[in-house]
Write a sequence for this structure.
């Protein structure tokens, strides 16, 4: 029982701070600052002149960050059994390891440890170092903005999936039609339906790079129709997300007003 109290106290400290918990708040600020600095460091490291000049400091900061994130990961792994859904000392922890938040925490440190245990090509090591950018997703545990984004996507996932399905169907139909219309005239540009999907994506998103475009009258008519349709289709997810954010913000405002009335 005492062990569970320790775990609950630890989780209340390392999870998003509740009102009045100053230690937890300091921990949140420290971890969020460390995550942001890590992302900045990964970006700046790509500037070869700066990285070669300050490589020692970049390496020291990376070691420090990995130590902190590793300690945090194992603290969460130890304390997770205080939650009811992870209560079993073995299977509960295994279940926690494969949860989204635990996988994000693991990906934050895994790129550092893999080259230590496995002989890897330098190109793979560089790619793994780039994966350190995934540490930004750790902000989702502490940032209100990240939490709100996740909630909106979860609550609107059915509408978003319908929209995505509609976009995929339209992309397949438009690229297939354009291939059969333009292939004989431009066999080097519209070589196959998969290759024509590049034109379909560029047209539906109204980007219009111009490297692949129809030259036949029928092809131009189809391209114009698809471009106009694309404006409406790609506006749907934006509208769904906007409605979701508006609903989420109004709920938060109602909860705040209720809490003020109680006080």
């Amino acid at each position: 029982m005492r062990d569970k109290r320790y775990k609950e106290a630890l989780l209340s400290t390392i999870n998003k701070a509740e009102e009045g918990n100053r230690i937890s708040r300091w921990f949140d600020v420290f971890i969020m600052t460390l995550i942001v600095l890590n992302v900045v460091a990964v970006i700046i490291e790509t500037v070869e002149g700066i990285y070669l000049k300050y490589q020692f400091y970049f390496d020291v900061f990376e070691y420090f960050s990995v130590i902190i994130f590793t300690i945090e990961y194992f603290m969460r792994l130890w304390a997770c059994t205080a939650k009811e859904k992870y209560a079993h000392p073995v299977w509960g922890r295994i279940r926690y390891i494969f949860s989204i938040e635990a996988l994000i925490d693991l990906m934050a440190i895994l790129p550092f440890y893999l080259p230590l245990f496995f002989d890897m090509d330098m190109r793979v090591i560089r790619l793994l170092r780039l994966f350190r950018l995934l540490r930004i997703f750790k902000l989702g545990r502490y940032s209100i903005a990240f939490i709100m984004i996740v909630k909106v996507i979860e609550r609107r996932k059915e509408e978003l999936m319908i929209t995505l399905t509609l976009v995929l169907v339209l992309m397949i139909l438009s690229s297939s039609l354009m291939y059969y219309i333009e292939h004989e005239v431009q066999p080097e540009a519209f070589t196959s339906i998969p290759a024509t999907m590049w034109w379909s994506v560029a047209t539906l998103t109204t980007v219009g790079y111009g490297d692949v475009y129809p030259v036949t009258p029928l092809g131009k008519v189809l391209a114009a129709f698809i471009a106009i349709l694309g404006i409406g289709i790609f506006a749907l997810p934006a509208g769904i997300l906007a409605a979701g954010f508006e609903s989420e913000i109004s709920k938060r405002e109602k909860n705040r007003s209720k809490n003020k009335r109680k006080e």
In short: The first helix runs from residue 2 to 14. DSSP finds eleven helices and no strands in the chain.
